[in-house]
Design goal:
The structure is a homotetramer. Chain A is an all-alpha fold. In chain A, 80% of the residues lie in helices and 0% in strands. Chain A has helices at residues 3-28, 38-59, 65-83, 89-111. Chains in contact: A-B, A-C, A-D, B-C, B-D, C-D. Chains A, B, C, D: This is Ferredoxin.
Chain lengths: 112, 112, 112, 112
């Protein structure tokens, strides 16, 4: 895989993760067991904002890309760990999207 | 008040409102009566994002300023109405910041 | 096409447009005829920010979706008109992505 | 200075820096010596986006605050160095706001 493909894959994984986080966020706010989802809701938003920055930074070839990818890995790992505790479909889908995004960012850092 | 002062006042009101929305959001997520605050939490985030766009659009003199101010008024009015239903200090402070931001945007629209 | 598919298509068109705007923005800043691209660069950024808000608002089913789609149409039309004046490949690609996003938002408004 | 004051000061410095970056960005795009300001324009936008994230992360007490402050210092230092090369008033004002924001973030990291 060349560098352009790597970027493209990482942009897509970040935007997919932002999407999953936003869906998990708004779905969690409607759940009956809301009180158990406080941290999930909070991390969904933080992770969505950081994935958004990561995707746009790659699109614009930001000079701070390495540090933004590291931050994105941190947020995705935390959100995946939290969402992974819950049985809701939106939580499982979000945890998976977070893990994939973190993995793709890690591969970027090796190459970049 | 000249147009520059009007802009400056409206930027400040938008950023104050974003701040109040973010504080109300994170504080609401910790409250005991969380289930009553679902809509408050949701509107806090929407309103914070829109106030952020409004402030930055004024700072950059966006060609879409009129429509963005109208959107900001809509979001602030909705968030003020919802936060106004709750007795928490962060909700009251948020409702007040939203009302002030909406008023300042309305004055902008008269002049702009 | 059902409403979910409509949302999904509109989210994708917004994110594609944000991507094209960011690429056009950073590519324009490197061009020799930079002075002719001032308005293009400026609109790329405004349009990217608004497409970002539109995509995330659809993902979170924002109560202000109608007004945000109208704003997105306005920004995309303006950016498409400006990018359409230039011969650079990134400008042509951006104009096309903007037009597609505006069309998809218009279809959303009919259904929503 | 207690931790709340430290946060408040750092939020204000980040928002002032975002403001100065946005003004410098839109003013630079109008300048006659546009070609010399390419990197300035580019860094203004990156720095504004990162200061925005930093301010909102502090307002929401993000779990990734330390890493976001480190990223903010990096962006502010780079933007201050670039803007410091130019004689325009908006560049000087931006360089000063960037330096102040970086300093305030550094103090946050000592305490946090």
């Amino acid at each position: 895989m060349n560098q352009d493909q790597q970027y493209q894959e990482c942009i897509e994984a970040s935007l997919d993760c932002m999407n999953a986080c936003n869906i998990c966020y708004v779905s969690s706010l409607k759940e009956y067991d809301l009180a158990m989802l406080r941290e999930c809701i909070r991390l969904n938003r933080e992770c969505a904002d950081i994935c958004d920055l990561a995707a746009q930074s790659m699109q614009r070839n930001s000079p701070f890309l390495k540090e933004i990818c590291e931050l994105c890995i941190l947020a995705c790992d935390a959100c995946a760990a939290e969402c992974g505790k819950h049985e809701h479909d939106h939580c499982k889908a979000c945890a998976e999207a977070c893990r994939k995004c973190a993995d793709t960012c890690r591969q970027m850092l090796v190459v970049a």
